[in-house]
Design a protein that fits this description.
By secondary structure, this protein is mainly alpha-helical. The chain folds into 2 domains: 13-72, no CATH class; 82-122, no CATH class. The chain has helices at residues 13-22, 33-42, 54-59, 68-72, 95-98, 108-116. The longest helix is centred in the first third of the chain and has 10 residues, at 13-22. The chain is flat and about 45 Å long. The model has no long low-confidence stretch (mean pLDDT 86).
């Protein structure tokens, strides 16, 4: 996700799961040592070896600049806050992604279309 695509990415579901189970994590020149270490620890093949607890993850060098107390108190400002016109404003997402059907809910697009036009939410 740090580089735009999830690790082990494939458009083919079978290949994706095979990659997750058997392929090594690959990094680009844009992944510095801290990012590589974080991802490597989060994505260990053996779940017992992974960074798992919130405390372990929060203590990683990748998050060194975050004041977790201020975060919890909601006193930190986000580095970027997109302007949105409402809950259905999708202009910050690629149309290629927002036009795809939602596979888990056959009626979702119909329902979404009604909501977007100001109609019923049911």
């Amino acid at each position: 996700m740090i580089s735009g695509l999830p690790p082990f990415y494939s458009t083919d579901r079978k290949t994706l799961f095979n990659n997750i189970q058997h392929e090594e994590l690959k990094f680009t020149k844009y992944h510095d040592a801290v990012v590589q270490d974080l991802l490597s620890q989060l994505l260990m093949k053996d779940p017992s070896e992974r960074l798992a607890s919130a405390a372990e993850i929060m203590a990683h060098d990748f998050f060194a600049g975050i004041d977790w107390q201020k975060m919890e108190q909601r006193k930190l400002r986000t580095p970027y806050t997109p302007e949105v016109l409402g809950p259905l404003d999708l202009r910050h997402f690629e149309q290629e992604q927002t036009s795809k059907p939602i596979a888990s809910s056959p009626n979702s697009l119909e329902t979404f279309g009604k909501q977007a036009q100001g109609g019923s939410k049911t």
